Here is the input.
Amino acid sequence: MKVVYPREQWCVACNLCEVACMTEHSRTKDPLKAYLTERPRPVSRTKVEYRPPLAISVMCRHCAEAECVEACKNGTLTRNEETGRIELDQDRCLGCWMCIMACPYGAIGQVAMHVGGEERRVANKCDLCPDRDVPACVAACPNRALVFEDRG
Amino acid sequence: MNMGVKRYVILGNSYAGVFAIEAIRKRDTQGEITVISREPYHVYARAAIHEYMDGAIDEARMYYRDKDFYDRHRVTTLLGSTVAGISPRESSVVLDSGQKVHFDRLMISTGGVPITPPIHGSEGPGMFTFTTWDDAKTLRDWIKGRKGARAVVIGGGLIGLQCAEGLKHMGVDVTVVELADYVLVKALDQIAAQRVQGWLEENGLRIVTGDTVESVLRVKGRVTGVRLKGGGRLKCDTVVLSIGVRPNTGPVEGSGIKVNRGIMVDNGMQTNIQGIFAAGDVAEAEDFLRKRADVIPIIPIATMQGKIAGSNMAGERRTYPGGLPQNAFQFFGRSVISIGNVIFIDKNDGFEEIVREEGEVYRKAVLKDGRLVGVLSMNYIARMGIYNSIIRARMDVSGIKDRLLSDSFGFLDLPKTFRDEVLTRPG
Amino acid sequence: MLYKNPYNNYFDYVVQRDLDRCIRCKACVTQCSYGANFYDPDREMIYSLDANCVGCMRCSTFCPTDCIRIVRNPDAFRPNANWKDNNIKDLYKQAGTGGIIITGMGNDKPFTNYWEHMVIDACQVTNPSIDPLREPMELKTFLGRKPERLEIGRDGDITTKLAPQLVLETPIMFSAMSYGSINYNVCESVARAARELGTYWNTGEGGLPKALYEYGRQTIVQCASGRFGVSPEYLGAGAAIEIKIGQGAKPGIGGHLPGEKVLEGISETRMIPVGTDAISPAPHHDIYSIEDLKQLIYALKEATRYEKPVSVKIAAVHNVAAIASGIARAGADIIAVDGFRGGTGAAPKAIRDNVGIPIEVAIAAVDERLRQEGIRNEVSLVAAGGFRNSSDIVKAIALGADAVYIATSALMALGCTLCQQCHRGRCAWGITTNDPELARRVNPEIGTERLVGLIRAWSNEIKEMLGLMGINSIESLKGNRDRLRGVGLSEGELQTLGIRQAGT
Here is the structure.
């Protein structure tokens, strides 16, 4: 199954993967509006770690036996048997953060979501951009430090 | 055996069961799977009953898997059925109704039951336990029926406090009575526990520690209050008993299946009787850190055990890597995550503590002989799971102690070999 | 200007940031290697220190909302045709430092660019042009000594013993850039591209990193005055050996790789201790005459059993034709001439901008002289120094070059924006730096693709131009100055270039 892999030796810490991810997962799909006017503000699902001279962008691996799925309280996180992708249904999420505790990649974050006029924090993680051929972060990476590959 | 078609029977309908079913079906598309549960519900999120009770989540979000989960996995369910006994000799489970269900492989995942010590006056209305969906519904309906309800929750463990928070959200005046010197004594250290206690008190809960309920006071059968061992009295109309949960080993009594605290299993989750497995809160399996058997009643362990048991029931040979205690919980919007051992620290035995306290944030790491064995974090929980991988890898972190608890801690602080291993291969 | 000497505070660029469009992604902050952009967490804003900006455009190209403009500092000295801005600023700088001004890349002064005063002929009616998409078009080029005559055996095979040749699929090679002045990723990009294109790259004087020995058959290994990295294995690894006498950007002076750039891999390759300055002397201390040069040429041929062509590279200077003649007679197989627009990793600005001659006239002078002396066939002539596009190359070959070397253009394909800061070792595009964080910015996968793309594009254009001249082989263009005409040149210039005035 194809997932996004970081290639640390080519990461230049430009953060464009984060910008692309935030934009792709915004309502307007426009980086300016996503950041400046959308509320709640969308949050990138990949995390650029930067400790000069090193940098790396880390996101969900869509594990074959995902520890987030095994820890999730109410089935918000499930594995799609057809695609193999680990799916997160934010509408179901209880915000219990068992997944944050479980994910060995530190790849699950939080994002605010409006439900019926109320703001609620839910889990947030890479969905491999189902509307795109190549995930946004990979497409935005100027140095091929992120690749979309099937490594078996 | 029916033309080589294996018959799998699973007792209990919760986290371990679901993962066992998924593991079996991945390997055996033909076998017959039967789930037997005394509860009448489709598989639900047991750990969210307090949020259901106070209305934070609706029924739809309570179900752990889609309604068609059993159909898709071709599972026969016998819900609302209580097990009377297990006969390993006949390879059958006998139900209360007298019905016999034969199996080739059996998994016992009957979970836990609340501990209910005899307390004077505890018989009668106004007295509740809090471990099932029905418990939550019953308590909710009881509270809804009375104005200005006052409740005493006996036990300041996780379930007790979650129930107390739920009651508070429903407008109930709540007092928690905890025997130990502080709440969450099994999960947190004293500093962390006192911070949690502070959050609860800020939100109007009363916490009594170092004391316990001696008797429930009643007038004409109605609860009017409790008397504490220390001599005090608390006025109330509702009492919730949540001093703990024990493995629900009742169904295996007399079967010859070995029980210590829970049902004893080997590293393939099999009991002393071949073909019979156990998983989840009822099972006593290897503790990853202490390397001895224990019952660790948490979701990720139940599901992992269910997965291992199911795989092995279907003929694979998978080994349980040992359970790592961990938990994530919130009170009034503030979060705590603890992983591994954050409590049992003997500085003469190679343990070392690193603590970072900054305003609302409290973080602690525990090292044993330089290796990370536990992490606790309050109000800053980003990327906590990375510590899970470090503990699992038994990694020596003595060289990165200064970075270990920083907000920006991540893979770049860890050895390159570890990063390459973890981040460049399929998960 | 707080804490700064006012005389040094006349900076060149201003970073304009449209704060309404800034999303605080910090791409500009992490990408600037000169500290010109910074994030202020207190105000949650990104600001710039304009004085640090070198105009490399790294930040503006990375900005995802295009909110950055790098503009010339509009601060203006009173206009003065004699005292241009850079004269004034350099003077202030030197008064403050007492030092030589060092810079990078090639001569940027507005000397006459002769390529822009030459036009190419085309066929009309009487001789048909050729469509390169329909007809075969040959760019294959052989570099090395050619025999005076060929003897053919009865079976049709050549029986004359031929000198060793470099075989190029296109008459464009990558010029000398040392490992150290550019980093390993750039070397790898260039080496891989050379292999893919069927041409050659040149190690410069930095030696050949062990990991790049696999590209040896596409490599010209240099032997320069410092002899860095020269060993029997090194000489054996290359396809040809080049003796570097001079460089177009700094004729007559040596090179200096500062010790801080001599890191582990560079130290190993150059065979000098980590952290020591790598100083290439101005002259080769064993070469004071054509005879001395001949000794070195034959020593190298002897060391490689006469299997590899030996090239001698010189800077284009006043007497270039006579020097080239001497080099040919000393036994070189290839003469590389580097014009004064050729780049460098570091050179004194005064020298870069004022010493040497344009490559256009040097090609014409050398080719003419070698023809006159009847030894043109004994050496191939490779021209270097400021080729910007395919038409420059076509004109160079028509003037008499066999092939060209490019380096500045190659680095531009990898991102270089000619900001001229190579000597500082902080190249924001990750090219002329060994800082591991910055060097990562050139991913050789991408670098190779872009270099291959550039040379393919130019090669196709060269074929188009050959076709319109009715020529189907680059061989037929060599020294074919009749296909060039001059526009706007003086009689003397036309004569030196050996071309006629347009319209005649």
